[in-house]
Amino acid sequence: MSKKTLYAIFDDEEVLLESVKELRSQDFEITEVYSPFPIHGLDHALGLKETRMAITAFIYGCIGLTFGGLLIYYTMISGIGKSWPMNIGGKPNFYFYQNIPSFVPIMFECTVLFAAHLMSITYLFRNKLYPGATTKSPDPRTTDDKFLMEIKVEGSDFEIKKILTSTGASEINEKNIDHE
Amino acid sequence: MHKESEIRDPLILGNKTYHDITRDIARPVEGKANKYWWILFGLSAMLFLWGVACIAYTIGTGIGVWGSNKTVNWAWDITNFVWWIGIGHAGTLISAVLLLFRQKWRMGINRSAEAMTIFAVVQAALFPLIHMGRPWLAYWVFPIPNQYGSLWVNFNSPLLWDVFAISTYFSVSVVFWYIGLIPDFAMIRDRMSSTISPMKKRLYTILSFGWSGRAKHWQRFEEVSLVLAGLATPLVFSVHSIVSMDFATSVIPGWHTTIFPPYFVLGALFSGFAMVETLLIIMRKVVNMEAYITIKHIEYMNVIILFTGSLVGTAYITELFMAWYSGVEFEQYAFLNRATGPYWWAYLSMMSCNVMIPQLYWIRKIRTSFIATFILSIFVNIGMWFERFVIIVTSLHRDFLPSAWTMFSPTFVDAGIFLGTIGFFFTLFLLYSRTFPVVAQAELKTILKSSGSEFKTRSHE
Asked: Which residues in chain A touch residue B164, judged by CB atoms under 8 angstroms apart?
């Protein structure tokens, strides 16, 4: 049996979305969709799971808050503070809780710093984006104004092509992957 | 799909398609610079070099080359620092706060406003660095384990809060900006021919991080943008609050007030929007972005300027009232001296540029005119510089001991460094406008169908 990849090109994101819904309702598997901008509702139509980026940001924020708190506790209270308790501008550093108002700004900044940077790094890592990466979409026009649907087919592609054409694909290219 | 009311004005003018947006935004990067760009670039670079010379002179000789003296020990350096940091705030407000509020008009201007933020924070960060006198020891401001006994930075000090706030603000702004830039760099990469310009192609391939626009990537992109906006929003308010605490936690009459944090944040947004307008009104002409940065965008910004300007005016009056109401004669004198003392002209410039002139925006004709907006935005920039000058110098120059009373006069080095940072800022912005996609085209394409003028009339018929 021949294996091949179909590349269906669409000119409009709403047409593509309808086509995705149609194909999915007939239990065809869509490998990937490449688009020049985010399409609302496409992730649900494709059956993608919800992303967990926000959860990672929360965890990283908690790490940042803990880091900030421990840093200040060590440098101001338990480390030097223990040997030389100092009263700086009416802000005594004998105990952490007495002095917490003036520690809030830096603990907050540490929370934001950790959450924003570590989430962004996670995002780049999960998407395999890094300087020097040369992955591209199968068609360079997908960063301009074309929307591309990639479907891996085994056996007959007649049915899929029929749905793609009837739902408004402007062109369908294919690539045989027998020899790969 | 989201449909928008027909009475809302379009945000993208002309009969544009997705491909037109791509072409228009890639054009400044692909084309050659025109004569005006080179003239502006030459002027900015000359100012920048003059600033570098003045900085070198300061560091080589010492802070004594400035006009600051024993009584006025903080002057133009901190004035310029606060002014630049304030200007930086509009970028984050446009990209983060307006994203949370789902304001579509941010799409046309957010990229350039964020660029402006980053370049302005660079200028601001220069001043504390120069002021240290020994900038090669600048890393001492960070809590780094060291061999000087158990010597740590003081976490009670607002100056250290500033270090954390500004470094966080700068790095988070850069990350936020770059996450949005990746898809746009990919767009330019895919348009570049590897035979005609192989170097450029390689450069944009590296910059685009191998972006391909997969559905899962876009899903993550949107969530990351939203969370970064949520993190940047409290951050932007915290930064200028903390800057204001450099003054507010001291005991100097005129500085020691609880109104400072909100008043500084509003002033920052006020001056930041003015600078965005100054830059964008020129930029839309020079790089042909008239269809994407429209009079509607300018009008929305003018409304924000009117609003924040009125609040800043309220804060000025509240300050005067509180000085009188406090019953503290030093506090009362500090404010009386500001308005009627030897620096009355600075106070008058501040009041007229920040409080009275923006009130002209109540008039629709002025609010919707590019020329009037450009002129008024320059006034606001000047007014906000004077605000910081008034707060800093007039509070210091007549202190508790009349024998120490003095005046401040800047030297050519003070002026040179300030002009140098303006030159540096414009140099960076001009370079940016020729190498970066100046409008967030991927995001702009998502609003074409709801806010494009052609689509709006078509849906109406």
From this structure: 105-106, 109-110, 113
